[in-house]
Amino acid sequence: MVKKIINSITLKRSITRIAVEIIEENNNYKNNLIFVGIEEAGNEIAKRLAGAINDLEDVTIPVLTLDEIIKQNVDVKEKIVILITKVVSKGWLVEQAINKILSLGKPKAIQLAVLIDRGHRELPIGANYIGKNVPTSKSEFVEVHLNELDGEDAVYLK
């Protein structure tokens, strides 16, 4: 059974809320932020977050994929790196991303923004910014659709 749990309006609202929380948490450092999309959908969410922050604060935040930040050997010292992903569950993908960022140097901080947190952690990793907590069973799957990739904004529970 497939159930739509988030529609386009709610998804947009979640992204706006995360953007506001990022501004509030990092107001003194907003010129030192770097958004890093962990995967393709995470990168699209990062672009939307950066756009929302630019609309609210007139600040341009660089958005890079995890591969780009490594290939370009970006200087992360004194930066706040915000890793962005569509769904966090066990935490392994986030842990790998953190290790890649740390291989570039020691940033001021690494934070995590997720559209959906479905629980089931196997690593002690928590998100700083969460669009929506979706408690699931281990047999359920959360599928995020984004306009840029899938032609619609929605989140489904399968």
Automatic annotation (TrEMBL):
SUPFAM superfamilies, A to Z: PRTase-like (SSF53271)
InterPro entries: PRTase-like, PyrR_bifunctional
Coiled coil start-end: none
Superkingdom, taxonomy of origin: Bacteria
PANTHER family for this protein: BIFUNCTIONAL PROTEIN PYRR (PTHR11608)
Protein's name in the database: Bifunctional protein PyrR
Species the sequence originates in: Xylocopilactobacillus apis
